[in-house]
Fold each of these.
Amino acid sequence: ADSTIYRASTTAPVNIAVVKYWGKRDPKLNLPTNSSLSVTLSQADLRTLTTASCSASYLASEGDSLLLNGEPSDVSGARTQACFRELRTRRAALEAADPSLPKLSTMPLRLVSENNFPTAAGLASSAAGFAAFVRAIANLYELPASPSELSLIARQGSGSACRSLFGGYVAWRMGSAADGSDSMADQVAEAAHWPEMRALILVVSAAKKGVSSTSGMQQTVATSGLFQERIARVVPQNMDAMEKAIKERDFAAFAEVTMRDSNSFHATCADTYPPIFYMNDVSRAAIRAVEAINAAAGRTVAAYTFDAGPNAVIYYLEQDTEAVVGTFYHVLGDMDGWKREVLSGLKPTLSLD
Ligand code: PMV
């Protein structure tokens, strides 16, 4: 029997949304209620490295498996299974068209995945994780798929993952097709278009988030009236304004939309019944610190944004590093518990842990 082990590796970066994805119109296919836009962070700082392998010698009884940071991880979830199924179907079509190809689609898959940042840092890692997962298998299967096509598959693993198939400034267009065939990501601008962009991550808590994004979204869609206003008017406006700000490299406009959109997203969470609070007192102190930094500079040099947890991501431009990062240490340095911490290879990071 053929004992060849077929193997492929890839890395995928973390992305942080400046116009947030929040709400599923189809939970099964991970179709969103609104478009979203993110900035992909540097791979030198935050990325997932994944190796996919398959072999006829892998025991069929063991099935597909995933080792995440050295720990066996459950792959039986519907989202992970959808990714496996989509990728196998595409490989099987290639094998049907060319019988000389090895039948990789019939072999068990083994995935080994490592983050280059502490998992305990409480940073959303599912985006990089599913993007690397999908591309590693696509490479292994030698699928002739573009990043946008792979984003269609990664989207089914974790919505935000579809944006990590591209670098730079990335939009996920919500689409309108019921089967999700037009709900995918595209690149608004390369990182080189605005190379001065930086992100500072304030680790407020490394604890796992209290309400998962899936259940938070479900509750928001079901119970928030404000959410209807957000998806009908606020997000479409923010998408347009954000694309324009990026094209024109207008940091003040980029920052205002980023902060307004984060506020809008967290307002819809507070508007659910019962309310969901992702930010805490330290998160709010970070917002006040950004406002103080901008006031002291006499112009907008920093923008905050928060995902489904208390950690802050602060966007700023390289030339304003001293005003932003320096002042952050100054303002928050006195606060009990703040300490400067440089996570392995990460940009300057403040931690309250
Ligand atoms: O991809 P998910 O299901 O983990 O949802 C991500 C939701 C936010 O991070 C809050 C917003 C976003 O667009 O990334």
Amino acid sequence: HVAHTHRTDLMTITRFVLNEQSKYPEARGDLTILLNHIVLGCKFVCSAVNKAGFAKLLGLAGETNVQGEEQKKLDVLSNEVFVKALITSGRTCMLVSEEVEEAIFVEPSKRGRYIVVFDPLDGSSNIDCGVSIGTIFGIYLAKDSHNPTLDDVLQPGNKLVAAGYCMYGSSCTLVLSTGNSGVNGFTLDPSLGEFILTHPNIKIPEKGKIYSVNEGNAKNWDAPTAKYVEDCKFPQDGSSPKSLRYVGSMVADVHRTLLYGGIFMYPADKKSPNGKLRLLYEVFPMSYLIEQAGGQAFTGNQRALDLVPKNIHDRSPVFLGSYDDVEEIKKLYAASN
Ligand code: AHG
Ligand code: MN
Ligand code: MN
Ligand code: MN
């Protein structure tokens, strides 16, 4: 029985999204087409990342982005690929990228209903040593696709219609949620060039054994964050200490958190009162996925998805992961107010 050792009924990401779409007779297939273009961008970046070492794609590009970060060649290349793929999809009217200072308004003849916010390459500091990196994206609907305004994208995360990420790791994995069919993971089969459904309906464990944070910032933390991390190492309730895992690529740290459970955090500190991670294209898409998988995402003050951005590159502290673990940090912040 060949079928026992080989999958013969391949659920590709395109087939999966088309299936979803067919549940909504009014759907016009625009989201399917848009996602196809995002998938193409992910395949391109995956291939570029794999050959970066011998294709002279490592190292700095020589420019600084609006965040004041030195751009890597792969940051610039990935940004260009996604901007072009998204515009040529004909389904977007506005784009916001980590690497571009202003929002990009698509020229009128190529406009569609969607707005895409994205981090073309997440984990820049890990590029040159071959550690997992990724792409993060979120999708909003514009009120009027003919006349998009900045207000259409300065929307809370609870208004996202879809979000996902692609991790360029030991395998290339794309995780997607469109809000009504849970969170699903697809692995790129390089021989087919197709993403195949490998992680259907991902649910994050209710409680985990891992905490993930840059502890090098500990001297600048506020009291609740410091207390939480202290409790991870020296639990007061007789339970075992948690393990520490921190890759330094949000995509990889969130992916592990989604599959294994636990908590990922980039808290506020004295030097960075809003933390480091950007709301629109890091905090919101990841918080959306975590909530869709049954977890929680908290800012230290409120539900992360309810924040309303004032500017496209705004940042926010974030604590996200297993429901019960995030509940603990929420209690500590509530008690400190
Ligand atoms: P990016 O590479 O897109 O600028 O994002 C970097 C982010 C994120 O991937 C990660 O979680 C975080 O920076 C790590 O920051 P520290 O090095 O301060 O821990
Ligand atoms: Mn960056
Ligand atoms: Mn990033
Ligand atoms: Mn980035």
Amino acid sequence: MKSQSIEELYGMELAGFIKISKDKDALLVVDIQNDFLPGGALAVTDGDQIIPGVNILAAKFHQIESPIIFTQDWHPADHSSFASTHPGKNPYDLYEAPGIGPVLWPDHCVQGSPGANIAPGLQTANATLILRKGFHKSIDSYSAFLENDKTTETGLRTFLEAVGIERVFICGLALDYCVYYTAIDAKKQFEAVVVLDLTKPVNSPEDSVSNAFKDMVNNQVLFVTSDQILE
Ligand code: VGL
Ligand code: ZN
């Protein structure tokens, strides 16, 4: 059975076929961790469905010897993004503070916990770099490049620049948070391409996906499906 196409799901215009180049294109696999999968603390609906396709896409980048970077959300147990650290607050309550928001989260991806592990089905043997983010207690990091203060660098920008990368392909979880913010920050220095069939949203608050797409389109982020990426 053919599943619903991504054009039908999101209505985004696709960039078409793109041939990837050795050492100029990098793949970012964002936060595919147990806590973001069905049954996890901050479960993303169908988050597990993207894993086989991510493995296939990563194999294409590995084939041409281009870097593959996995990220891990990696929070201390008392992280300020957790509702549990704010008396009287519940997960998904709206909450804005510097570096935190627009909602509070259930406790998730606590450093060293099973939920923070990369999903066992994901093949990481070919990883060039596994980057952890969100480890500062009072500031979140949705983006793999910049923490939510929009100033503190994770080091990923400098890494990609040092190895000569010009374009990044972004997949993983979640579309409306870490994938979205990663794409916006990537585009400041590199071409940024989001792989629409290999990402799924949290959908909280309810306009998070439409806002993310609006902002990505305004920033000239490109969209493809994984079958359009050719080695
Ligand atoms: C994420 C919410 C909180 C994500 C991480 O990976 O998209 N979302 N922490
Ligand atoms: Zn988080």
